[in-house]
Amino acid sequence: MHFCRQKVIGPYIVDFYCAEHALVIELDGAQHYEEEAEAYDRKRDAYLVSLGFTVLRYSNLDFKRNYKNICADILKHLGLE
What domains does the chain contain, in order, with CATH numbers? Predict the structure, then answer.
């Protein structure tokens, strides 16, 4: 299994991408929780889902504080739990 970082998909650049599992992982900073950014992310996620991708989003803060739980969640989505 291989993950790409900063992969272009259509008009967007995703943080992490695994082609084998059609999985996109996004790590979001504080700016993603502003109203305009949330609307943009919903549109972006809908586009990616329409292409058959699963999109997982985690905050940067959660990633720092709950790394093991996030890894477990990703493994669950990959069917590797």
Answer: 4-78 (3.40.960.10)
Residue-wise pLDDT tens digits, 5-32: 999 999 999 999 999 999 999 998 756 5
Exposed, middle or buried by CB within 10 Å (0-12, 13-18, 19+), for 24?
Answer: buried
**pTM recorded for the entire structure:** 0.86
Distance (Å, whole) CA 75 – CA 59: 17
Backbone angles phi, psi at 58, to 5 degrees: -135, 145
DSSP state of 9: E
